[in-house]
Design brief:
Radius of gyration: 23 Å
Largest sheet: none
Order of helices and strands: HHHHHHHHHHHHHHHHHHH
Helix content: over 70%
Shape: globular
Strand content: under 5%
Structural class: mainly alpha
Number of strands: 0
Length: 523
């Protein structure tokens, strides 16, 4: 009995520590990007900034070419982390790496072949067409160079070592932000920004290779371990991950492409102003979900369904609790937020922001369900349903954009997301691990009910107190968040002790992330 309690404690500690590392890294990256965006928009202008957003959206689609292999590697490594011999893990990494190197070469070639689309399919102003093409070429090279190292990132995640991934991310972001500020001030425009990305990606490549070779002792040059059977097992699983990935890209990244084809670069910028806070919102919820694939795979390999049930319920609850204060803030102070961030002239993006907030909330709630479904090798049904969601998303967006503008694109994203999240993912995951369905849905309903009085108080407060700057907005939002989060998190008696201990140890975990880098690389 004592050993079981210790194992549960160790599992919870690892899981929660990884979540903390993810949050620290995420907030650093997100806040940096948040502060850089209005600075970049001011210097580049709406047209050039819209073109940059379009290029980034196109590049995001190239991540589809991982064919689901990175996620598959993460899962397979997690299932072998307790092996005393690293041969199986080395085989997995080497075989997947060879595949990714080939894909990276194809990616660059295919990416360059898309150049004729600039100025023809996409409505890019003629005066900045040359800059857009040069910048795009550099971005393609930068993405191709870092692409194979996603296998190493998957390796670290498979070992549930999210500290390394976040340290690398923080350093890369620092290089990128400082470099971007420099090139923007010097007037090098989007070409300069693309060169900064190439430099920061080179750092990531070197760091990931070094850690893989010298910390984990994985011989990435052991080409004699290339095995057709291993490649087959990787692809048999990853094909479904690929379908899910393609569908996810269509759901959350097709909007900008659709607007770029059927509207203008200015419309892209206005939609991005509404989308960016919601991408941030979803990423906040995902920080708990991101660590659950490896945890679920590990638990499934041990047939530990009772802990899987707890993982689904508590992760769903924490995700809802984490996101709902932001939902309230966007609803109540959304206009103030947009005005302070990019200016009053963009206030028309508010209603698009609200619609997207509802959809992103629903999509994030299903995160743990998705990971559990994948970990239990039942991803084929989920992939099919996700594909249907993506198709309906694109169809609705294309139909509604000409009729009601960018808010129609937001509706096209939100309605399918609500259906998949609340109507399928939670239900199917609960059934797979034999969890009580009502108890899972209750993890969402209770936080929503608790949020209602907080939303009413925030609305009344907003009627009498005007917000003049970001400092006031952050203070008011922070107070709301802390009060709601504390009440909603600790009101559950079964989990109260876990989170009280977590709060006590939070400072230690943060210290380990920022000051443990030397020990981490020298172990």
């Amino acid at each position: 009995m004592k050993n079981n309690l210790e194992n549960k404690s160790n599992f919870s500690h690892t899981l929660i520590s990884n979540v903390i590392y993810n949050y620290i890294g995420f907030f650093y990256v997100s806040i940096s990007g948040f502060l850089l965006f209005p600075f970049s928009l001011h210097i580049l202008g709406q047209k050039v900034n819209g073109v940059l957003l379009l290029i980034n959206s196109i590049l995001n689609y190239f991540s589809i070419l991982d064919l689901g292999v990175a996620t598959t590697v993460m899962k397979m490594v997690a299932e072998h982390t307790h092996d005393k011999n690293k041969t199986e893990i080395t085989k997995i990494v080497v075989n997947a790496l060879i595949v990714f190197i080939v894909i990276a070469i194809i990616m660059v070639i295919f990416g360059l072949a898309l150049l004729p689309l600039f100025g023809n399919v996409f409505k890019i102003p003629r005066e900045i067409l040359f800059q857009a093409k040069i910048s795009y070429i550099i971005y393609i090279i930068a993405v191709g160079s870092i692409f194979p190292t996603a296998i190493f990132q998957a390796l670290f995640s498979g070992y549930q070592n999210y500290k390394i991934n976040n340290i690398i991310s923080i350093v890369q972001t620092t290089i990128s932000i400082l470099g971007s500020i420099f090139v923007l001030i010097m007037g090098y425009g989007i070409i300069g920004l693309s060169l900064v990305t190439l430099i920061s990606n080179t750092f990531v490549l070197i760091a990931r290779v070094y850690i893989t070779l010298f910390r984990y002792k994985i011989n990435i040059f052991a080409f004699n371990l290339i095995n057709r059977k291993i490649l087959r097992s990787i692809f048999l699983f990853s094909r479904w991950i690929l379908l899910i990935t393609v569908a996810s890209r269509l759901i959350f990244q097709s909007d900008v492409i659709i607007i770029g084809i059927f509207a203008t670069a200015v419309a892209i910028t206005r939609y991005q102003i509404a989308l960016s806070p919601n991408v941030f919102l979803r990423a906040i919820g995902d920080q708990f979900n991101n660590v659950t694939l490896t945890a679920s795979a590990n638990l499934h390999s041990q047939k530990n369904f009772s802990t899987l049930q707890r993982l689904l319920k508590e992760s769903t609850r924490v995700t809802a609790i984490t996101m709902l204060p932001f939902v309230i803030v966007f609803f109540v102070w959304g206009r103030d937020y947009i005005t302070l961030w990019v200016g009053k002239s963009y206030i028309s993006s508010y209603y698009t922001l609200i619609v997207l907030t509802i959809g992103i909330f629903a999509a994030t709630i299903e995160g743990t369900s998705d990971q559990i479904i994948i970990a239990l090798n039942k991803q084929h049904i989920y992939a099919f349903v996700t594909a249907l969601e993506a198709i309906f998303n694109v169809i609705l967006s294309v139909i509604l954009l000409p009729k009601i503008g960018i808010i129609g694109v937001a509706i096209g994203t939100t309605l399918p997301a609500l259906t998949l999240s609340l109507g399928f993912a939670l239900f199917y995951a609960s059934r797979l691990i034999q969890a009580d369905l009502w108890s899972v849905y209750a993890q969402i309903i209770r936080p929503v009910l608790i949020a209602v009085p907080f939303a009413i108080l925030a609305y009344i407060f907003n009627k009498f107190v005007a917000i003049h700057n970001f400092i006031e907005l952050f203070i008011f939002s922070g107070i709301l968040y802390l009060l709601y989060f504390t009440v909603a998190l600790l009101i559950e008696p079964n989990e109260r002790k876990t989170y009280v201990n977590l709060l006590k140890n939070f400072g230690t975990s943060a210290y380990e992330l920022f000051f443990g880098i030397i020990n981490q690389t020298n172990d």
